[in-house]
Amino acid sequence: MAENVIGTDIAPPDLRAKITGRARYAEDFRAEGMVFAKLLLSPMPHARVRRVDTQAAEAMEGVLGIIRASDLPGEAGPRERALTDEPKYEGEPILAVAAVDETTAAAAVEAINVDLEELPFVLDPLESLREGGDDARLDGNTVKDREVFSLKWPDAVFEEAGEDRLPMGEPTAEWAVGDVEAGFAEAAVVVEETMVHQSVTHHPMEPRSCMAYWQNGKLFLHGSTQSTQQARNAVARSMELDVEDVVLVAEYCGGGFGSKISGAPIMTVPAVMSRKIGRPVMLRITRYEESYIGRARAGFQGWAKIGFRRDGRMTALDLYLVQDSGSYGASDFGTAGVVATASYQPENMRFRAIPVYTNTPPRSAQRAPGGAQIVAMLEPLVDKAARELGLDRLEIRKINAADGDGWLGPNQGRFTSARVREALELGAELFDWDAKRQLSGQTEGTKVTGVGIGLSPFTAGSSGRDGLLVVRDDGKLYVHQGIGNLGTHSIADTARAAAKVLDLSWDQVEIVWGDTRKHLPHSTVQAGSQTTFAHTRANHAAAEALVALLQELAARELGDSPESYRVADGRVFRAGNASVGMSFAEAARRAVALGGKFSGEEYPDDLNDATKAAVQGLAGQGLVAAAKDNYPRDGAIYSWVISFCQVELDKETGEVEIVDLASSADCGTVLHSRSLTAQTNGGVIQGIGMAKSQRWVFDPRWGVPLTKRFYTARPPGILDVPRSPRFAAVDLPDPQTPVGSKGIGEPPVGAGEAAYACAVADAMGGRYLRRTPVTSDMILAEMEGRSGPYELLDTHV
Amino acid sequence: MAVIRDMIPPFELYQPSGVEDAVRLVGEHGDQGWVLAGGLDTFDWLKDRIKRPAAVIDLGGVAELGGISETDDGGLEIGAMARLTAVAESGDVRSRFPLLAEAAGLVATPQIRNQGTLGGNIVQDTRCWYYRSGWPCYRAGGNVCYAGTSRSMNREHCILGASRCVAVNPSDTAPALVALDAEMTVANASGERTYAARDFFIGPEIDITRMTVLEPGDLLTRVRLPAPQPGARWYFEKIRDRKSWDFSLASVASVLHVDGDVVRDARIVVNGVAPYPVRSDAAEAVARGRAPDDETGQMAGEAAVQDARALRHNDYKIALMRNLVKRSVRDAA
Q1: In angstroms, rounded to a whole number, what is the distance separating the alpha carbons of residues B242 and B330?
Q2: pLDDT attached to residue B166
Q3: How many domains does chain A have?
Q4: ipTM score of the complex?
Q5: Which residues of chain B have pLDDT under 70?
Q6: What is the average pLDDT score of chain A?
Q7: How many Å is the maximal CA-CA distance in chain B?
Q8: Pair A483, A602 in one domain
Q9: Which of A778, B25, B278, B318 has a 20 to 30 A CA-CA distance from A323?
Q10: DSSP class of residue A596?
Q11: Based on the domain organization, do A604 and A486 belong to the same domain?
Q12: What is residue A516's three-state secondary structure?
């Protein structure tokens, strides 16, 4: 009997290489004759390139080539490409220079004169919505149904709002569930607030460096990406190549957080340059460049009005979000509205929003896009209502929590599972909420204690992908993973589903990943916390197919019916008489000899084309099983994290110290306990950073960012949180998936962010400072009754 | 010409092994030369291609600049190249000048303290992000200050000592050294000169392009700490957004001589609030002759900020400085 692989702590196969430094990331690769490229970035937030003088650069010894936007595949259009002649933010790449070394390439960039026509720019969405306000793009300031256009709100909208409320003109997105006015009529307590969640950059440790070369018309690309099989598709699309003509190597990824979901636009630069100059080209992205092209979370200027019955039930939620979409758009706002329903299951809700372009770097998903923002903005308002209702803050969350199958708005049906109350109770026990809440407001010396809870749901799965397994004549199981290795261990952990079905010990399992030459099946993009759910299913399905093939093979070779055979411990054998059977190694050899469906010459018709191609590539190499995840699933897949935070706020300095931190989760069955704890705590800390210290400051006069370095952007450090944040999972299976596990990557972020924000407001006697981050200067100003550093709706400060 | 960052341009590297050679090289290269100690300030400038020296004189091989030794009068002499970790962990520093050990131990991160030097920490340039972005401001030889306007992002900037430039001194050890009455020894081609720490740091009204008295050709060689007075109380606190790898929003260093229940003498220094560490004569005068308690601290704090003026986004620094001075009197131990 093999050990139980579900829930146990097994070191992933990439661990040693990472710890010892043997792991090769994109910029560690070298190719024969490789040269280097450097980028020329726009010095202005919005401009048009009139003329580029490259004469001096081209005359320099060692300079090999220059590419501009016109050299890229496809047409310049509304979508972002790697290079542009109309930069829409400071730092947008205009051209690239290749040279024999980076020193020469940099000197060549410096020798280029770019003549730019300055265009109007805007950093604040609300400014762009005013009559006479500038648009960030030549084609407009907002988008609806993929059409970019210019929208201005009448002055009256701004006048009516005054200085203390979000102006709310015509939105571009709107939906309602029930009747929000009727809900307010029923409410005993109504809270209403305007608040700001600022945009923040991703800052993965590994910048998006990439190296490319061509051989016989085929593009070989070493990149940093969260996904693999889907990233290859993205690279093929952006390069206008057939997928078969792209080889992507991406075995390790030094963090993505949603900024490297598939192929990054910048990957086309070394690819195109290499094709042009006939040499392998390495583009090492620096920290400075990463701060511009490395993606960012969309900010919100928001307003919420929330009604509660006397018993604490949320009767109405009215939400309005103005989204800072950066220069190329973002869809966070839509998710935010949906997540709000998952959080509180409001009896009635209205959602309105407008995304607005600004001349700031591109947005992309950032770990719980839309979700983290809305959770951090609304949770302190729930606390405010709890105070007014005289309800415990844990209780009000239990009262409004999704339960059982709950519902997801608008029109997204039921959840596959929701054990939010169990998670709240588990976390409360872990944190000792009953005792800790008594500490609220207690003062010792200059320090006052506050405690807070943050409840954060986020999407956690998808279905319908493919699994691909090979038993080779060494007797081992090879799990081919098209998902990427973004640092979450899911390349290994989702393979456990196959080991479980086969009752195979883990040391007989080999993971195949990270290189599209290795025949990888159709997979999810490694985003939206889909992977655990989607690929435990896909690998489970493939393993069941493999079991069926083994049984059939054994029956054929050894007699009796397929059903009379069992599979365990690397053998297929007759039930009741284990001596009749064969090892995996033998089965693999016989499969090769038999061919057909046993060795991958035949395969199910419902596989994705990518999987079919992978199976064809593997045919004849062993016993090959591929299957599509056809397991039934009826509902939205969501996970929840609840964080509890205790802080001490120094009234004389505004400094806040986190003295205790605990989190709990409903993410279905625990697949890998140690990794789950690390994932959750990491996300919680990332969220705390947004609430506490992380900034993306722009100079409003010049329209350019000032926080281009880690030390000025201030993402959180490990010393900013207690030494050992605690964690526990409900660990009950989702009934609609065979292994029972749901994703966990994203929900922790909003939980940590909100728990911290609520704890700080609690320490301040319930005063919520209505923005992120809340830094010590703002707290001190508030404690001292001095004017705060920013206006209510200021962004990028 | 286009701007490119994060790529160090070529330079001539000199690696002297003795102080004499180092001083000679620094003198020879003058304003075309750049002194490299730990590199934490240097490499930012070089990588960004904003400061472009023809020659870099690396002090890493000058062993005699690295030591910490006792002086005849019972004080300590610390070489400019002593690593911050060495200063923070030195038994002599910890027992006699815990204020300096504390300040040095709060610099940045362990890795940076292992690499960074006391001399480098003292003479480092300001971190004003406009100046550091290479904007042509007064301090960079231009004729405008980008940080001081009504729309500038200046939460981290100064409330005292502004003179065209509103940048602040970022050093953690500088206020401690001023509070400890340290002396800095500067060598150049014409010999050695010693400066009181308080006079070593200069404001923009004296020279807007420099943070210290050091001019091209000068080399800070050592810091001398006079013998500590027995029973002196001290206080150091650094307020920052993160607990590691962060410059201070403001910091305070104080040394108090308390006799019975009365402050006989006090040196109170605040950094991060002006282009130089501010020794507050007004706060010290208030503290002298009074009990080191909350009330005296409050009065001293108020006195310290009486001339402070906020920029658009840093009004909080007035309250912060006042409270830090209060704590430095009340909580000194």
Answers
A1: 25
A2: 98
A3: 3
A4: 0.97
A5: none
A6: 97
A7: 67
A8: yes
A9: A778
A10: G
A11: yes
A12: helix
Site from B153, B317, B328 to mutate, A interface, most A CB atoms within 10 angstroms: B153
Domains observed in chain B: 11-59 (3.30.43.10), 232-330 (3.30.390.50)
Instruction: Answer whether B327 sits within 8 Å of A780, measured CB to CB.
Output: no
Split at pLDDT 50, 70, 90, the class of A263 is confident
In a domain, A188, yes or no: no
A115 CB near a chain B CB, below 8 Å?
Answer: no
Residues A661 and A598 grouped into a single domain: no
Confirm whether A524 is domain-assigned.
yes
- The domain of A731 spans 368-458+637-784
- Report pLDDT for A77: 81
Indicate whether A425 and A484 sit together in one domain.
no
Element housing B132 (H / E):
helix B129-132
Phi/psi class of residue B313: alpha, beta or left (left: φ > 0; alpha: ψ in -120 to 50)? alpha
Token pair recorded at residue A569: 């411990």
Is there a single domain that holds both residue A451 and residue A539? no
Instruction: Please measure the distance between the N-terminal and C-terminal CA atoms of chain B and give it in whole angstroms.
Output: 56
Instruction: Check B129 against A707: CB less than 8 A apart.
Output: yes
Query: What's this model's pTM, rounded to 2 decimal places?
Result: 0.98
CB A153 within 8 Å of CB A169: yes
Question: Which of B126, B168, B242, B329 should be substituted to probe chain A, the one whose Cβ sees the most A Cβ atoms within 10 Å?
Answer: B242
A39: domain CATH number? 3.90.1170.50
pLDDT at A2: 66
Which residues in chain A (652-671) have CB-CB distances under 8 A to chain B? 652-655
Q: Please enumerate in sequence order all residues whose Cβ is within 8 A of that of A565, keeping only pairs 6 or more positions apart, or say none.
A: A550, A551, A554, A555, A572, A573, A574, A575, A581
pLDDT tens-digit series, residues B234-285: 999 999 999 999 999 999 999 999 999 999 999 999 999 999 999 999 999 9
Q: Which of B8, B316, B318 to mutate to test the interface with A (most CBs of A within 10 A)?
A: B316
CATH number at residue A720: 3.30.365.10
Residue A273 belongs to some domain of the structure: no
Considering the domain architecture, whether residues A433 and A532 belong to the same structural domain is answered as no
- The widest CA-to-CA distance across chain A, in whole angstroms, is 87
Query: What local confidence, expressed as pLDDT, does residue A125 receive?
Result: 98
Distance from the Cα of residue B58 to its chain's centroid: 21
Show which of A72, A93, A119 is a domain's final residue: A119
Q: Compute the radius of gyration of chain B from its Cα atoms.
A: 20
pLDDT tens figures, A730-747: 999 999 999 999 999 999
Query: Last residue of some domain: A565, A597, A628?
Result: A628
Q: Looking at residue B64, what is its pLDDT?
A: 94
Inter-chain touch A717–B245, beta carbons under 8 Å: yes
Please check whether residues A472 and A447 belong to one and the same domain: no
Q: What is the pLDDT of residue A76?
A: 81
Residues 6+ apart with CB under 8 A from A747: A368, A371, A456, A457, A458, A460, A529, A639, A640, A641, A665, A667, A683
